[in-house]
Amino acid sequence: MSFATIAWQEDGVVMLDQTRLPAAEVYLTCRDYDDVARAIKTMVIRGAPAIGVAAAMGVALGMQNRLQAGQPLDEAGFAQVCRTLAATRPTAVNLFWALEKMRRKWEAARAAGAAGEEIVRRLVELALAIQREDVETNERLGAHGAGVVPAAASILTHCNAGALACAGYGTALGVVRAAHAAGKVKMVFADETRPLLQGARLTAWELQRDNIPVTVITDNMAAYIMGRGEIDLVVVGADRVAANGDTANKIGTYGVALLARAHGVPFYVAAPLSTVDFSLATGAEIPIEERAPAEVTGLAGQPTVPAGVPVRNPAFDVTPA
Ligand code: MRU
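Above: the input record for the complex with MRU. Below: its predicted structure, written as tokens.
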């Protein structure tokens, strides 16, 4: 893989701007925590694990900047940074998981009497560990998941649960990568994934980069292709899995799951433990982000809905366990 989704640098957090793909490969440097928050909100960086890594780095950057500006490293400052990052996107639990880990590190460092620079060093170290461990987890997930992929498989996926959605390698696309390395993948079908086209723009981009065969279909073609027996299994990622296994993922995932059940096609969710929210009994409690109507009412600068007609834009749905 010849790109980095996110990287820590002394002077900021660098992200591959996913809003610009596939037209342009542009890297954006976030100089402070509020830049990181904006990048998450506007989906410069997206995908549950990647959002978690970005939030952790955002906290470290925010506290590093406070130190360098001579501001006190106090609880009020830390809470402000965390609050801003927490208010970006509500559904992917990895964001809150990462913020919680950073908080525990912050509290432990202060309880141990660590001073300014030492506290920042520990926060940076943890953010980098979260990034590193995400890739390691995905590699293990991929190796495990490849076991369920039959020979010469045609695999359907929805949205982007790839290296772009994580610190690297991917969850659902981690399974695809490992299966491909084992010589088992004939074709990956990528649902376009309206309205923001993560499948067409991002999944197709990163699989093509890795020379993994990929075909894009619009979301409404999945039933036809599956009905013809052209799909052997479905693998998707997750934004939040409730304690009973109900799974929130990109809008449209539930429909794909129903199609898979109707056609007797195995449907798998590939996700790390950081995506499981044991505090929620069922998926009914998962907060679902509603995004701006403008994402639905226009395409490539052209209106696709008459002005004044209301639209809905839930970004995720919940597939019952
Ligand atoms: O709105 P997005 O692009 O952040 O949604 C991403 C997804 O739904 C992914 O499938 C999910 O986060 C898993 S990423 C490994």
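Notes for the reader.
Residues 46-49, 92, 159, 161, 165-166, 171, 198, 237-239, 249-250, 315 surround MRU (CB under 6 Å).
The mean pLDDT is 97.
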